[in-house]
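INFO batch 0412 | record 1 of 1 | parsing
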Amino acid sequence: MIWVLAFAIGAMVAAGVYLVLARDLLRVVIGVSLIGAAANLSMFVAGRVGTMNPPVVPLGETLLAADAANPLPQALVLTAIVIGMALTFFSLVLVLAISQETANNDSEKLREAEPPPAANGQPVLEDATTSEHPDPRALQEVR
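INFO prediction complete | emitting tokens
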């Protein structure tokens, strides 16, 4: 059983890396989600695989039974699933906003849309007096 799970985790990581290296932003999001699911599965497998008693302390006792499942990996995986879903949904919204703003979701074409760096290699910053939304502190310095 452990070999099947190890092979499944390896296949998920391989598919996730393949998708992350793609140029399409939606594939990148799916790849990151797959890698997160593989990490969750590997953490869950670390907590012993097999048929065990649930990690519940019986009434009147203070310790888990010896053949009970380890509750720590289960709690960590449950938390990681919630965080991974939030990351996936945020990434999907971000990709959707980028696609609507630029009418493009190819990462190479998005890189070409960036302004070139200045002569000193630093990013070009807008002048505080000509920007549409100036910083109030910068305007006070100009006056």
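INFO post-check: Helices lie at 2-20, 25-45, 71-102, 107-112, 136-142.
INFO record closed
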